[in-house]
Amino acid sequence: CVVCILANYSRSGEVKTTITMGVVGYPNVGKSSLINSLKRSRACGVGATPGVTRCLQAVQLDQHIQLLDCPGVVMETGDPPAAAPLRGALAPQRLRDPLSPAAAILRRCPPQQVGGG
Predict the structure, then answer these.
(1) What is the per-residue pLDDT for 99?
(2) pLDDT tens per residue across span 39-56
(3) Which of 71, 72, 79, 85 has the lowest tally of Cβ within 10 angstroms?
(4) Phi, psi (5° rounding) for residue 103?
């Protein structure tokens, strides 16, 4: 159990200390959902599009464990701007030009997967 493992880290000999653990990752991979699952309640907002978590948020799991939920992190790769939506950096509704990312997806997919036949 993950909570048990975290609880073990909060022990220092006979003294219980408080630990803070950050949950970091790409946009829309389930960071907030993981925290909600561990907390067994809806402590963090979740959604199908990137950008629901807009700032760092602390969630107290128990008296010794605090989890930090952060917005998705996307590292700059030097890829063309059309690749940003493919990494989850932009919500589809915010795209000015949806054709460039769609064309990038089509270039990466084998034709038989896209053609329907």
Answers:
(1) 83
(2) 999 999 998 877 788 889
(3) 79
(4) -65, -40
